[in-house]
Write a structure and sequence with these properties.
Layout (H helix, E strand, L loop, with lengths): L4 E3 L2 E3 L3 H10 L3 E3 L11 E3 L1 H20 L4 E3 L9 H6 L1 H4 L1 E6 L6 E3 H8 L19 E4 L3 E3 L9 E3 L5 H6 L1 H8 L5 E10 L14 E11 L4 H19 L6 E5 L11 E9 L2 E12 L1 H10 L5 E3 L4 E3 L2 E8 H7 L1
Parallel strand pairs: 5-11
Antiparallel strand pairs: 1-2, 3-4, 6-7, 6-8, 9-10, 11-12, 12-18, 13-14, 14-15, 15-18, 16-17
Helix pairs in contact: 2-10
EC number: 6.1.1.14
Family: Belongs to the class-II aminoacyl-tRNA synthetase family.
Keywords: Aminoacyl-tRNA synthetase, ATP-binding, Ligase, Nucleotide-binding, Protein biosynthesis
Length: 330
């Protein structure tokens, strides 16, 4: 197209709309169910898109699993026993605050409005039509479904909002079957689902997406050194992938934006046409997840460290990358 530019051998596009058009024209990404008008927040990968996506994943798997002796792979089911999500805190805590415009009926996430408008207080005026916004309310992000032949409270299940919990509930199975010793990690690629209030920016914020996650189990005394290690390792991986260094940065989460399970989190951010946004989160989850599943399941999740002669619940350093978001950068 006329406004495309070649910079250092890489095609530069003037806008996100140009990228969407290019991806469709060349068979990378299409709107899901397009002939029926599509469905907001869902995308399909075409012939070239599938190959690109798999190449990015293979590059990740090679760096995080194949080249290391302290990380093993896993592939878990999408639907799990719903008690997993109760124990993890997702049923009670996994929601966004949203507001609706009383005039044009547009819906917004409160945190996105604050960021876009550069304000700290709760917004009261719609940026689209200047109409009034109603009071903020909770919006649950997990998709519900039913397992079995009946639709009642006993058959409710959830499409997983993250892949990590399957790793946590199988920590002991993997550790005992592989005889891995702490520190070690468990990695997987998988689909996750979040009923986003306002999916936007092409594949960046979708309702169905793929994650590349690794949970690294460590002794509590080594949390900081492994957190720092994985921050640097992950940033280096993006550089090795070919992403321009000047478009990458770290951003530490403020206390009020931390997830319910996180002690502290640092994001790897990329400068998209719509600003710096998260590519990957590196989080110190402490022993929150193993402790929750230990207590709620009644099954012992502790690990006996022969070298330390100590029995404990390991802390977890998590690397959680968005595969779709990473594809969007390359």
């Amino acid at each position: 197209m006329a406004n495309d530019q070649q910079v250092a051998g890489t095609l530069e596009l003037d806008s996100l709309d140009d990228l969407v058009s290019l991806c469709k024209r060349r068979g990378y990404i299409f709107q899901s169910s397009e002939i029926y008008g599509g469905l907001n927040g869902f995308w399909d990968y075409g012939p070239l898109g599938v190959e690109l996506k798999n190449n990015v994943f293979d590059f990740w798997w090679d760096a995080v699993v194949r080249r290391r002796e302290d990380v093993v792979g896993y592939d878990a089911s999408i639907i799990m026993q719903p008690k997993v999500w109760e124990a993890s805190g997702h049923v009670g805590n996994f929601y966004d605050m949203m507001v609706d415009c009383t005039k044009c009926k547009r819906r917004y996430r409160v945190d996105h409005l604050r960021r876009d408008l550069g304000i700290d207080e709760v917004p009261t005026e719609c940026p689209n039509c200047n109409g009034g916004l109603n009071a903020p309310r909770e919006f649950g992000l997990m998709f519900e479904t039913y397992v079995g032949s009946t639709k009642d409270s006993q058959s409710v299940a959830y499409l997983r909002p993250e892949t990590a919990q399957a790793i946590f509930v199988n920590f002991r199975n993997v550790q005992m079957s592989t005889r891995m010793k702490v520190p070690f990690g468990i990695a997987q690629r998988g689909k996750a689902f979040r009923n986003e209030v306002t999916p936007r920016n092409f594949t960046f914020r979708s309702r169905e997406f793929e994650q590349m996650e690794m949970e690294f189990f460590v002794h509590a005394s080594e949390e900081k050194q492994w957190f720092d290690y994985w921050c640097e390792a992950r940033m280096e991986w993006y550089r090795d992938l070919g992403i321009r260094n000047e478009r990458l940065r770290f951003r530490e989460h403020d206390a009020d934006e931390l997830a319910h399970y996180a002690r502290y989190t640092t994001d790897v951010e990329y400068q998209f046409p719509f600003g710096y946004q998260e590519l990957e989160g590196i989080a110190n989850r402490g022993d929150f997840d193993l402790r929750m599943h230990n207590d709620h399941s009644g099954k012992d999740q502790t690990y006996f460290d022969e070298a330390r002669q100590e029995k404990y619940l390991p802390s977890v350093i998590e690397i959680s990358a968005g595969l779709d978001r990473t594809v969007l950068t390359v």
